[in-house]
Each structure stands twice: as C-alpha cells, then as structure tokens.
Design brief:
The chain has 124 residues and is of the alpha+beta class. The chain is built from two helices and four strands; from the N terminus they run H-E-H-E-E-E. Strands 1, 2, 3 and 4 form a four-stranded antiparallel β-sheet that branches. The radius of gyration is 18 Å and the shape is globular.
Length: 124
C-alpha cells in the first residue's frame, strides 16, 4: 500500500498548449463532434479551453524522480526569499510543471521536469 503524502491533496489540471487558431467557438464545435462520436461521457463536461497567465516566477530544471521534487521546491522557495520575493501559491498563483520525458521509458534519475513557482515581491 502506498504511503499517503501531500500530493494526494493537490487539485491539478492537465493542460495541453493549443495554437492561437483554436478559439472558444472552434473548441465548442470540436467538443460537440466528440460527443456525437463517443456519446456524452461525464468526463467531457470537465474539458475547457482557458488562458493561463503565468506571471513572475522562479523556474528550475529538476532532474530526477518526481518524488524528489519537494527538495527542489524548497530550494526554489529559499532562492526567492533571498532575492526579496515570496511565493504566490494560494493567492491566485499556480505551481506549474512541464514534463520533458516519458516516465515509462526513462530511468527515474534521468527524468527532466521544468518546475515553476509563482512569486511576488515580499512586503518591506
């Protein structure tokens, strides 16, 4: 049985970059065609097209297993603090990960993940 950790409480969103030509009307038409072809599956109600404004952030390339990301995130928080910034998580900022490998084909120690931590200037 897997040990429960903080990640079990995360609310996450899988995002796939879309080209600018994919507008809300085009997205809705594609969704309608998908429903016509596959039926009105409950999961389709969770699909949406949205814009993600990242804003100011600290970014690092994490190399290694996903389980070791917390240590990297702690270093990111410490770096931001030393530079006069603080995290915006929970204040509209979103932790952001970009996976640059395929975990089923890569050794865990070789996985590459871009980690982004939203930040703001710390109050003086």
């Amino acid at each position: 049985m897997r040990k429960k950790d903080e990640r079990d409480n995360w609310k996450w969103t899988l995002m796939i970059l879309q080209p600018p030509l994919v507008t809300q009307p085009i997205f809705q038409e594609a969704l309608a065609q998908l429903r016509k072809k596959r039926g009105d599956l409950p999961v389709f109600s969770r699909l949406r097209l949205e814009t993600f404004e990242e804003g100011l952030c600290v970014q690092v390339m994490h190399i290694g297993p996903y389980a070791s990301e917390p240590e990297t995130l702690e270093r990111m928080h410490a770096y931001a603090s030393r530079q006069g910034y603080r995290s915006r998580l929970g204040k509209g900022g979103r932790h952001h990960e970009i996976y640059l490998g395929y975990p089923r084909k890569s050794a865990p120690e070789k996985l590459k993940t871009t980690l982004r931590l939203p930040i703001e200037r710390a109050a003086d």
